[in-house]
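Posting for a labmate who doesn't have an account.
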Amino acid sequence: MPKSIKAIALLLLVLLLTGCAPTEESLTFFAMDTVMSVTLYDAPEGMTAELQKKVMELEKRLSVTDPESEIYQLNRNGSADLSAVTSEVLAETLTRCAATDGALDITIYPAMQAWGFTTDAYRIPTDEELAALVEQIDYTQIKLTDSVASIPEDRMVDLGAVAKGYTAHVLTEMLQEAGVDSALLDLGGNIQAIGENPKGRPWGVAVQSPDGEGYLGILSVTDKAVVTSGGYERNFEQGGITYHHILDPETARPADSGLVSVTIVGNSGMDCDAFSTALYVMGSDKAIEFWRSRNDFECILLTDAGTLLITEGLKDCFTSDHSMTIVERG
């Protein structure tokens, strides 16, 4: 081969290797009471900053603790004229509360306060307190007419169970509109995989082991949300008993459902966020029944006996060293 042709071939190879390498842009920041990170490939300059700005904007609207938020105003005044965004989130969340028959209930915030999970000033409420708190937990008492929301005097609304999932949805739309087809969002454990990874393969998402020792396994996903909930995320011990932050709306106590971890995989980050909490409260039997009644998500359930249940839609994209039981729709 003539030297000139060799030189051209070498130049083309260099251009191929350098010109096709995707440009990575990452940003880590604190929002919604957690650490978030976004990693984008071949994104417009400054896109990560735009995503952060949007997260902060949504937090301002949806926060239960920010005195300037719409939800804070609703809880303080008993009514509030909501923006289109907050009204949409509240309406969508109420449909999920109803779909799960109240296993997800966004009026559980007073019970969270009573246990100290909102301040880290942990305590065990008395039986009398818990009985009174149960009477305050009822999402059906939330009224939403057009953009006006109202609640009874003794109720409080907390959208924390869906806020990150909704945020993932909004950020995904922003990235799609900007032409970004490869990105990974980690919104405090709420994972949103956009497209494929830079190598053109599915993203590998690790599912944390509740004991803190490694992972239950690895999910291979493309254009999916992955959300895990477990009592290990926030808890305290007293008298040799561990109390976790996922409360059962029927008892106002930490859910004792026989599950220690629930992972939801689906197209909707909001569904995954909401259902990871709800299925944890339900327990494995009701969770599987709920999954069979729908066709919009898959799940991984780890029981307190160590049984790992995998719904059939994940059998080809979840690898684990643990023994697994495949749950079929049957």
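Reply:
Got it, the structure tokens are right above this. The longest helix spans residues 3-19.
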